[in-house]
Amino acid sequence: MKLTLLGTGDFRPYRPLGSAGYTLTNGDDMLQLDFGRGNLVNMAKSGIDWTVLHAVCISHVHPDHISDLFQFLQAWTVTNAWKEIDSELVIYGPRGFSAFFEHYRTVLVTTWDKLPQIVEIYDDTFTVQGFTVTTKSMQHSTDCNGYRVEAGGKVLCYTGDTEINSNLLELAQGADVLLTECSGKNADELLANQYGHLRPTDIAAIANQSGVKKVVVTHYPDDPAERELRIAEIAKEYKGQIIRGEDLLEIDF
């Protein structure tokens, strides 16, 4: 599989970074995980053809994880109406996602002649294209999915936004790649316990307990020094490979 990081920043747009969004490809199959700020522009920079994207998996509906989803939907629905593409689209989301999508569909002004298929799924396993995807509910300030994606004998676990929990440890078991948010420093007790986010010590514990081969850090502050600090804090407790996520980085595994 190949993982392309389209956005590695958090909610703060202080630097020209995208927010959460990642493309997984396996041969001709392509899957999108979240769809945050700047993802569509970075798709174009990466040479990713959005018209052949047939599945999107949303972890939760905070704006930094879905802000480009609706621009993508405008492009998809209008281009379908013009008969320039004729594709099916499935958007998967956590508990409550169907009602959320229906609300936005009624207020967004675009062509809705062809609706995407909306699937609310959690704590379940499904197949889409050549991917087998397992979801489990995470512990965040709103309903959130973590995703385990398997294809071609490889496994990626995406944390979404969450505090450390048994469901996440299960999703990450034996994964080739742990794609993980790192919103807090180790001292950020409030961020972890009240708002549901991961700190470096949490990431190291997940990776060690689950036998993860490689950690890719994302969804963290945009300041380079702060990013280096998060990586260093993880490396104190986890001795496997740690990759500092940056926009447009491509990782083959």
Give a brief description:
With 253 residues, the chain is of the alpha/beta class. The chain has a single domain, classed as Ribonuclease Z/Hydroxyacylglutathione hydrolase-like (Metallo-beta-lactamase, Chain A), CATH 3.60.15.10.
Describe this structure as you would to a colleague:
- This protein is an alpha/beta fold.
- It has one domain (2-252): Ribonuclease Z/Hydroxyacylglutathione hydrolase-like (Metallo-beta-lactamase, Chain A), CATH 3.60.15.
- Helix content is 28%, strand content 28%.
- The chain has helices at 39-46, 63-66, 69-81, 97-107, 166-171, 189-193, 200-210, 224-235, and strands at residues 2-7, 21-26, 29-35, 55-57, 90-93, 117-120, 124-128, 131-137, 145-151, 154-158, 177-181, 214-218, 241-244, 250-252.
- A seven-stranded mixed beta sheet has the order 6-5-4-3-2-1-14.
- The longest helix is centred in the first third of the chain and has 13 residues, at 69-81.
- It is globular, with a radius of gyration of 17 Å.
- The N and C termini lie close together (6 Å).
- This is Metallo-beta-lactamase domain-containing protein.
- Residues 51-220 form the Metallo-beta-lactamase domain.
- Pfam families: Lactamase_B_2.
- One of its GO terms (molecular function) is 3'-tRNA processing endoribonuclease activity.
- It comes from Candidatus Kerfeldbacteria bacterium CG15_BIG_FIL_POST_REV_8_21_14_020_45_12.
